[in-house]
Amino acid sequence: MLLMFLARLPMTAMGVTMTLYVVNDLGRGYGAAGLVGAATTLGSAFGAPLVGRYVDRYGLRPVVAICGLASTTFWISAPHLPYQVLLVVALPAGVLSVPAGTLARLVLTALVPLEQRRAAYSLDTILVEASFMIGPSAGIMAITQLPAVYALTGIGVCFALSATLIYRLNPPIRAEADTEVFTGERPTVRSWLTGRLVMAMFIAAGALFCLVGMELAALATLRASGDIAWSGLLITLMCVASVLGGAIHGAVRRSLSQGTLMVLLAVLTLPVGLVDHPWWLLAIVLFPSNVLCAPTLAASTETVSAAAPARVRGEAMGLLDAASRIGLAIGSPIIGFVIDHSSPGWGFAASALGALAIASVGLFWRRSRTPADRPPALASS
């Protein structure tokens, strides 16, 4: 867990660092910076299932070696590239990014007994929140206080170190009981990508859509009310609420299902827009919805881990990563458009309604499958 926490730190820092580099050092606008970020995000979304499949087939070390080398090369060379070239290479760099999230879930599934995985996945989600508290702040400090070449090269060095540590330690990605499964023929995607798994992917995408939209709407609300100076504290309090929720979710013997948690997350986000000032009141009304953040993400991992066959678990976790990143990628521009053409308050409503709409697509997909493909109890997902 500590190893994967360290591996995620440069990943959480790279978005804001690249944005500020393109705007401040290359003299481009935020739109141009957004294109680089979108290329990286789309690349990682498309690449995650493919990388997961190669982890299933060839093991951890070859994949980490190739992805670590690619990520390191991209970030060390980035400050020496013109914008046009940077934009072009951002997509393949995203495809070959180090799959820290997928690896973390595979390692936990291999090391932790079934009855304790909820607690393990919850703790992993808490560490993700901690990485987002540290990584972006460190990236902003580096790119604003140091020459850009040092800041971007530093991220590359961090990728190199984390990939080297993962390669050297080589944590297990398969439980001993699953070893014999990997000697047989690989099942086809059609045979294991059931309606339940597809629905879990849509629910995860909806949850991330809601979360990124909620954060964007909160920042827009603070800016409109003249309280933007409190944005750092507000985001920290939102992370603290998520950590608290993750701790509770991991400690209880039986928790709510992934779908129920996501619906509650959206429902509690829906009325937040009714409060726009002062900042501390906004923080209070945001607290309940953020308590459900980590539990929803942990339940997504738990659902996919339970539903995917061991032989293709890496690919399934890669699909979960892809769904989450797509939710993030489409959430920001859609909620930004709503805020630009209405008010920050409507951004919260759009985040909630958009999340429910995305999850509804997954529900429709599952119901459209044959009865044999679906477990009898819908609530089990």
Give an account of the 3D structure.
It is a single chain. It contains 15 helices and no strands. It is 78% helix and 0% strand. It has 381 residues and is mostly helical. The chain has helices at residues 2-25, 30-58, 60-77, 83-95, 100-111, 117-145, 148-169, 189-192, 195-225, 231-251, 258-269, 279-291, 293-307, 313-340, 344-368. Residues 370-381 have low confidence and may be disordered.
Largest sheet: none
CA(first)-CA(last) distance: 26 Å
Could you tell me the strand content as a percent range?
Answer: under 5%
Structural class: mainly alpha
- Radius of gyration over C-alpha positions, nearest whole angstrom: 20 Å
Sequence of secondary-structure elements: HHHHHHHHHHHHHHH
**Percent range of helical residues:** over 70%
Number of continuous helical runs: 15
- The residue ranges in which pLDDT falls below 50 over 5 or more consecutive positions are 370-381
Give the overall shape.
globular
- Mean pLDDT equals 81
Number of separate strands:
0
